Amino acid sequence: MDRLDLLKKDWDNSDSKYPKLSYDEIYKMILKKSSSIVKWIFIISLIELSLGLILAILNPSFEHKIEYPKWLDTFSYLMFPVIFYFIYLFHKNYKKISATDNAKVLMQNILRTRKTVRYYILFNLIFGGIFFAVASFIAYTQLEGGIAAFNEATSTTKYVVVIIVILFVTILFLGIIYGIYYLLYGILLKRLKRNYAELKKLED
C-alpha cells in the first residue's frame, strides 16, 4: 500500500487525526505518481532498444555459422525505426503528463499512454514471432545442407513435423517475452489504471 492509499484510508475514517486534503493536493499526488510511471516506461524502452542495438552490432557467433539471406537482415533492421517512433511517443506522453494541470486532460493522457504501450508490446510480439520463426526455419535448413537439399531430401511428414516444432518453440519464445513484458510494463500499466480510477472518482 503506497502513501496515497494510506492517506485515502485515513480520509475515509471520520475519527482520523489527519486533516482532509484538498482536491488540488490529491490531484498533484496522482499527477506526480503518473508522471513517474510514464518516465519509467520511457527509460525501460530506451534500455530495451540499447540492448537490441548492442546485440545487432555484436552479431552473435552463431550467425557466422549460418548464412542468413540479406532480406532477413533488412527485415530485422526495419524494426528499429518503429521502436524509435514508439520511444518518441513514450517521451511525448511523459512530457504531456508532466505539464498537465487539468484532471480531465490527465485522464486522457493516461489512456493514451496505456494504449501506446499495448501497441508497442503487440508490435514486438508479432514482429519478433515472425522473425524468430523464419530465422529458426532457415537455420535448420542450413544445418541440413541448405533449403534446396532440405526440400529434396525431406518427406512431407518430416516437413510438417519441422514446421510444428518451430511453431511450438516460437509460441514458447513469445510466452517468455510476454512474461518479461508483463513484469516490466504490465505492473506499470496497472498502476496507471489505478491512478485513472482515482482521477475519475475525483471528477465524479
The tally of domains stands at: 1
> How many individual helices?
8
Average of the residue pLDDT scores: 81
Biggest sheet, open or closed, and with what strands and sense?
none
Radius of gyration: 24 Å
Q: How much of the polypeptide forms β-strand, as a percent range?
A: under 5%
Helix-strand pattern? HHHHHHHH
Helix content: over 70%
Q: Distance between the terminal alpha carbons, to the nearest Å?
A: 24 Å
| Basic shape | elongated
Are there runs of 5+ residues with pLDDT below 50, and where? none
Query: Structural class given helices, strands, pairing?
Result: mainly alpha
Q: What is the number of E strands?
A: 0
Overview in brief:
The chain is mostly helical and 204 residues long.
Architecture overview:
The chain crosses the membrane at residues 37-59, 71-90, 117-139, 159-184. Keywords: Membrane, Transmembrane, Transmembrane helix. It is a single chain. With 204 residues, the chain is an all-alpha fold. The protein has one domain (22-203). The chain contains 8 helices and no strands. The model has no long low-confidence stretch (mean pLDDT 81).
Outline the secondary-structure elements.
Blueprint: H1 3-12, H2 23-58, H3 61-65, H4 70-77, H5 79-98, H6 103-143, H7 147-153, H8 156-203
